[in-house]
Amino acid sequence: MEKILIIEDDENIRDIVSFNLEHEGYTVDSAGSAEEGLQKISRDISLIILDVMLPGMSGFDLAQTLRSRKDSTPIIFLTARTDQDDLLNGFRSGGDDYICKPFSKAELIARIK
Fold first, then answer.
1. Residue 46: which of 30, 68, 27, 67 has the closest Cα?
2. What is the per-residue pLDDT across 45-88, written as a single tens digit (0 to 9) for each?
3. CB-based contact 52:79 (threshold 8 Å)
4. Mapping DSSP to helix (H, G, I), strand (E, B) and coil, where does residue 113 land?
């Protein structure tokens, strides 16, 4: 079973995404900050769903940190930042996909699969 780590500071979004992913059969762990997420990243994580605007370290900075450590875990940014420069920065920082809020459950699941 694949394990997904959600790093999102909005508890409501974290809970909704977790519920929907668990309903799809995934194991889910979550964190409310990049620093907490960094502590939870391990070899058994198959995918990271990462917000950009987090307290402390940003999602972009976390992605860059992971890539500099040669961590190739796929990262999907899930963010309210819709500007094209942000999208490009997401890919430059090591993201594999970029989904803008608001998002649909169906789109999120399709992109994960």
1. 27
2. 999 999 999 999 999 999 999 999 999 999 999 999 889 999 99
3. yes
4. coil
Instruction: Kindly state the helix (H) or strand (E) to which residue 88 belongs, with its residue range.
Output: helix 84-92
On the 0-12 / 13-18 / 19+ scale of CB atoms within 10 A, 57 is middle
Tally: H helices and E strands in the chain: 5, 5
Straight-line distance from the first to the last Cα atom of the chain, in angstroms, rounded to the nearest whole number = 13
CB crowding 42-51: b at 16 or more within 10 Å, else e: eeebebbbbb
Q: Which two tokens stand for residue 101?
A: 């809020």
CB atoms within 10 A of CB 90: 24
pTM of the predicted model over 0.85:
yes
Q: Residue 8: CB partners within 8 Å, gap ≥ 6?
A: 14, 17, 30, 31, 32, 49, 50, 51, 54, 78
Cβ 71 vs Cβ 41: under 8 Å:
yes
